């Protein structure tokens, strides 16, 4: 992610990365169900991470009224995806406790 931007999406992605890193440390002791759930979340994380930067950059460059609407739609979609991953991390954390 770009260091110069400090928007809610960056904050959300940073929080998710921290949760992900903490869970990765616990996975070596986890059972199969937890490892399977983490694997599914890893796929979602990889997808959102790969889309976040290009989407944010493209939408940021749009200066028209349509660009403003595109920013809102993109932010909302990324927020939904990130919250889904966050919810999955919380469920996994409870499973590991």
Layout of secondary structure:
Layout: H1 8-26, H2 32-61, H3 65-96
Give a short synopsis of this structure.
The chain has one domain (8-96).
> How many structural domains can be distinguished in the coordinates?
1
Query: What's the N-to-C terminus distance?
Result: 31 Å
**Which overall shape is indicated by the principal axes computed on the Cα atoms?**
elongated
Number of helices: 3
Strand content: under 5%
SSE-based structural type: mainly alpha
Mean pLDDT: 78
* Unreliably modeled segments: 1-5
Order of helices and strands: HHH
Largest sheet: none
Could you list some keywords that capture this structure?
97 residues, mainly alpha, disordered N terminus
């Amino acid at each position: 992610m770009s260091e110069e931007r400090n928007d809610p999406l960056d904050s959300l992605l940073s929080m998710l990365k921290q949760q992900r890193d903490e869970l990765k440390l616990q996975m070596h002791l986890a059972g199969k169900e937890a490892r399977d759930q983490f694997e599914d979340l890893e796929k979602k994380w990889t997808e959102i991470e790969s889309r976040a930067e290009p989407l944010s950059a493209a939408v940021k460059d749009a200066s028209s009224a349509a660009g403003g609407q595109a920013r809102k739609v993109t932010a909302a979609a990324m927020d939904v995806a990130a919250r889904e991953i966050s919810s999955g991390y919380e469920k996994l954390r409870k499973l590991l406790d």
